[in-house]
Structure formats: structure tokens, C-alpha cells
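Two proteins follow. First one:
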Amino acid sequence: MAETETEAAPLLKEIFNRERLEHFARETVAVHPGFDGARFLTLASIGLDDLSIMQRLRQIAVVYHDILPGGFATNLEILRALAPRVNHGFASMVLPEYVALYGQDHFDLSMDALAFFTRFGSSEFAVRHFLAKDLARTLKVMERWSRDDNEHVRRLSSEGCRPRLPWSFQLKELIADPSPVAPILENLRSDPSLYVRKSVANHLNDITKDHPAWVFHRIADWPKDDPCTAWIMKQALRTLIKKGDTRALHFFGAGHKAEVTVESFSVTPSSLKLGGAVKISARLVSTASSPQKLVIDYAVHYVKKAGGTSKKVFKWKEVTLDPGRTLELAISRAIRDFTTRVHYAGRHAVELIVNGEVLAEGVFELLA
């Protein structure tokens, strides 16, 4: 799942609200008339208000197991018929969750089911339970998925084995050694689907947090002139670029010290209340004798609850600046609470970063 700042996030668990449960019950009865929809609603609603989104997802899968009439193979056929009728992609992840919970002793049947269910939402969380139980066997199937005609199945082959997939448990074996996933990433390195490429880039970005050298070695011979591959490489190294990693900057021709003069850098207003916005502006002039590649970011040092600060780097601009030319930049950043960040009153430093080096600083005060 994507890590984004969104005000809608506190309501994500309402994907599995009473109305959705009624939808599940109604549609399951439609494909299997003997299904006890009333009992399903009663059991799936237990403690619903106090459950997180993932707890709700799992509770529904468990209730299906309690109510469906047959063994795993028989129940799976009912859920396969249900899948196209589920009216929300994330909600359909209940179905692969059922497979993860009750299909461990039916490996081949479960793998086929996960590849089928992922077309309607995603089986990325469910397949990790099989990876945890038998990494080699599951990766062998996932390598085959990486060559599938369906983009959802190809995406699953990468997303499902990300070592640090958000909202799921970490795959410690792959954190220690990512080499078993190399064939999958190689197969997908120039995938025509943006949906797949985002997953490959995120997967590689995960690996850079533990094995940056492995990633550089892996992508060293990838064709930069292929726009699909180039996009993956750039996104894969984004965390390292934000950290000013010289190798990552060199990879994109920006490893040199920026030859610029910062004529101005401002952060306005100097103080504001939560819910407002700050405007960050910069004016740079090239002092180089030839065109130079510039990777320009800005960082905000957010005040933490305990009084310290936490630095967050944001992408701003990538440009090739000719000798003597001036570059003017401006951006507005909202200062409001998200599920991923709560703001606290105090002095917030803002930095201008060019090719990994801090060239200017500003500040704004967030009022109580």
C-alpha cells in the first residue's frame, strides 16, 4: 500500500462498515443461496467500532470460515464466484486473507486462488504468510507470476515479497539477503504497466534501506535509455537521493558540488497557525562554465511532541541549468495535521538542498 498523507485516512477502516458487511452478506447469498447472511452480519459486526481496518478485514475472513459449509476447496469456489461482485478493491482483500488463514495446507490451490483474487484488489498481504512458511517454494511461483500477461498478477509478484511492505510484517530473510527476489525484479525492470513499475521501484527502495550496494550493482547494467526502466531506477533511489547519497546523485549526473549562488531564499509568513501554509521561495544563479545537472530539494525540521525535531526531505526540482542562467522556484506547503504527521508548536527550520548539500536556511514559527 502507498504511504501518502491524506485527511481521509482516519476513515479508512470504514471501508468495512455495516453497509459493506450487508453487501458481503447479500452478494454471498446471491452466489450461494444456502449462506446464512443474518448470522454472518451478527458475527462480523462484533466489536466493529473498536477494530482497526486490518482487524476488520481478518474478522470477516474468519467469519466466512465459520459460516461457509464445506472444506477449503469447496469454500474457495464460493469465494471465487463472489470476487467479481465485491464492490470495493480493498474490501475484496478479505478473500485472499481467507486463503492465507486456511489454505496453508493446500499450497497449489492457494497460489492459484491468490493469483485469481489479486485481479480484483490485491493478494499482497496474504501471500506473505506463504513466503514466511516456505520462502523458496513461494518465490518460485511468484517468479512465474512476474511473467504473467495480467498486470495485477505481475504486480503481485513484486509487491508481495517487498521486504518492508507497509501494513504487513517484515520478511526478515529478504531483509537479510534480497538476492532470492532478483529474478522477479529483472523480469519486471521494463514493465509497460505503471502499476507494476511503481511496485518494482518501491521494492528496490525498500532494499536500499539495508543493502544500497546491492541495488546499485543490480541496476548498474539496466538500460537508462528505456523510459520505463529509467523511471524505476529514479524512483528506486529516491530515499538515497533525499539523503544526499553521493552514489545515487552520481547515478543521475548530479554528484558534483553545485556551482550556484543563492541570491535569495525565503520562508513566509514567519509565523502561522495550524491550518495555514508556508511559501518557500528560492533564486539561484549558475556560476558554472558549462551546463550542470541540479537536484533541488527542501527539508522541513518538524517539531516533535517531546520538543526535538524530525527532518523530512521533499522533492522540489530537477533541472539542467546553463551557465549564468537564473532559476526561480516557489512552492506552498500546507501546515495541517495528517494521519502520518501531527504538528506541534515551535520553531521549524527549512533548508534548501542542492545536489545533496544544504545551501540556505529559513524558519517559520508554528503558533500554539
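Second one, unrelated to the first:
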Amino acid sequence: MKVAIAGASGFVGQALIAELEKNHEIVALSRGKKKSEKIEWRFCDLFSLLDAERGLQGVDVGIYLVHSMRPSARLTQGTFNDFDLIVADNFVRAAERCQLKQIIFLGGLHPEEAQGLSRHLRSRWEVEDVFKKSKVPYTIFRAAIILGGEGSSFHIMTRLVERLPVMLCPRWTNTKSQPVALHDVTASIAHVVGNSEAFEKVYDIGCSQPVTYKEMMKKIARLLGKKRLFIPFPFMSPQLSTLWVCMITKAPKELVKPLVRGLKTELLLNPQNKITVPEKNFLSIDEAVKEALQNYDPQQTPTAFREAKKEGRVVRSVQRLPLPKGKTAEDVAQAYMEFLPKMNPGFMKVEVRGRWIHFCLRLPFVPLLVLEYSPERSWSHRQLFYVRGGLLARKTERGRLEFREILGGEAVIAAIHDFEPRLPWYFYRWTQALVHVFVMKNFGLYLRRKTAFNSEARR
């Protein structure tokens, strides 16, 4: 089969390529330019639906390994869980349009209690829901920490053990989870590719015995031949834990902060979601740690630790807005065009002429920003406007504003992608960028008032 892997440049993606290329034709999707004689690399920015459609063209099965915890532009406004929803939604829409036979998603284990979840764990839950609502048959894998020599979580624990003879252990180090060996992950995914018996199934994968993070670090210390003293220190806050981990391991704060906040939650396997892979037994925790250490290079920097590629002066801004009951993204886009002329900030006025929106200075009449509605790339659940220039914006092919329904119509996302300002960067950062957030915040209030007014009118 022809299998596309989104997130192919990550450590799981690389291992999966090695596993699947034995029996399948591989298409590796990446934002970076790569070449290989054995597999086909396609450029694909999953924030672009058009890129996603091109990336999945002619593909039978799509494997989704993407997580948007690191910034992907010079300036990002919004939260990574909203970024996650956009790229997952694009992948699903593209998979449906390209008529894929199966989507495979590698997400996170679900705790029994949904209350009090960290943003990181909630994001994994929301993304899983996107795939479950797809028209393409799905197979979902849930895992806690994936133990591999190049894995970011394993690197963090190993670096702490290597660099700290005495370790103060916060409460989260006593939280239990069931990690899984990298080889077990790739073998499980390989088993379900094109397997109709795995369609519409959710599988929990991991070692058979629960283990705490402190116990894992003790196992790492023993295998490294290092004597380490672990002292309980329950008074350390998540903020202090994040600072401490970043300082010792050199891992980026954007990665560590959501991970630390999620470590307070036990991540254990649900026996009902067990998978059986022929001629395959999952490694024990001791075997998994030993195998990961054999492939661990202390001089190597994991992909997740590296500075994310931030293209030139590109801006990405995402806000989650309320979606009135019974309304669509098309209704929200129409409300946006009604709202803008009423906003009346004094020095500026907004004119809507057919498919064109002009943000202008009042006196003299100078176009500051010009948007063009694109009916060709818009549907009732997704509305698209292209940035066509103006005094404050560079004219580009990809700069755009979209309104997109998410979570089955529970909310709508307003997102600016690939926008390039004309203003000097520092001046833009503290003027125009803040104005955009202000406008979207007030538009959200406008939607809420409009919803409340319609509700009163119906009564």
C-alpha cells in the first residue's frame, strides 16, 4: 500500500519509516526539504489545507504523528491545543477528499477522570475526537511515554540522572504510568496498516506493569552505573519544576511546561483496549529502558529540543470563538463582515464591498489592509479570506484568514496564517499584532451578545 506519514521527521516517524518500508511504499510529509532514494518526501505545511491535499494525493493510508507544542512562525498568537486542532482537521479533510482507506493516529492515554486534565492531555483528547468524527475509517493508538533513544521525554529523564548526583523529587515523580518501547509502537502500527479488523478501533499500548517516573529514573541510573540520591520534595510547584527541568536538561520551555503539568495524572492502560500483535510480546519496563539506553547518544539533541523553523517575518494567530447553536462558519464570517464596519475605532474605518474588505485610514483615505473572500476555497464549515495587500501587509500567495468549525460544531476558530507585516518587526509586534488580538476578542464578545439577543428574541 502507499502510506503517508505526517510527522515523518520525528523520532517515531523515522523508526516507523524503517519498519514500514519493508512492505509498503512510503510518502513522508515534512515542512522541511528532504530527499531520499528509497522514499518520497513531500513538502507539506499542515496548517494549509491545500498542502495537506497535495501531500495525501494518491495515498491509501495516512499515519498522523503530529503535535504542535513548538511555535511554527516568528510570532504565534494562540495556544498549542488550537494549533493542534487546525492541523488535525486539515489532515482529516484532506484524507476525505483524497479518499483514503484508513487514518492511523498515535495519541495519548486517557485517564479515567476527565476533570483537572492538563492542556496537553486535553489536546490529545480533542485531536482524537477529530479523527473519530472523520468519514475515513480510523485506528487510534494511545500511549504514555514512548521510550526511545531519541525521544524527548526519555532524554529529559536521562539528562536529569546524568547531571544530578542528588535529585529533589516533586510530587509528580510518584505518578504512575505505563510507558511503551519505541519498537512496540512501530510493530503495533505496522500490524494495523490496511487491516480492516482494526478499523474504528482504539488500542492502548504500553508495558504490562505500571511504574512511577522516579522508578524509571532509578532504573536509568542503575543501567548507567551511577549512584543517585532521590530526595522527596513535595513543595515544588509546576512552575519551579519546569524551570528546574529546563535549566538542567536544556529542553525548551514550550515543550517542558505542558509535559510537567500533565505528569500529575496517572496514565494507565485500559484492558478493554488491548491489542494482540502476532508473534509479538510487548517489552517489560526494564527491557524497554535498556533498549532505549542502547540507542541513546548524550551528544545528540532530540528533534523536539531544536529551535523550530520560524520562517522570516511570518505570523500565525489563532483564537477560539463561540459558535452560536445552529450556526456555521459561514454565518460567523458574515457576522465578522457585519461587525467590522460597526467597530468604529475612530482613526480607521472598514468598508465591505462584495468579496472585498478594506481597512482604511479615515483621513486621508489610505488602505491599511485588504482582504478578499475566496468562495472557491470556502464551504459552510470553513470560510477563507486571502490577504491581498495594503500599507500594513506584504502581498503573498499564502497569507490568509479563515473561520473554521471545530469539535463537531462546538466552536469556531479564527486563524491568520502566513501573514507578513510591512511594519518594522518590533513596532509591528507591539502595535498591529496587539490590535488584531483586541479586534478578535471584541468580535467574540459580539458573537456572544448576538447569541444572547437571539435567544431572548425566541422567548
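SUMMARY FIELD: The chain has two domains: 2-305, 315-458. The chain has 13 helices and 21 strands.
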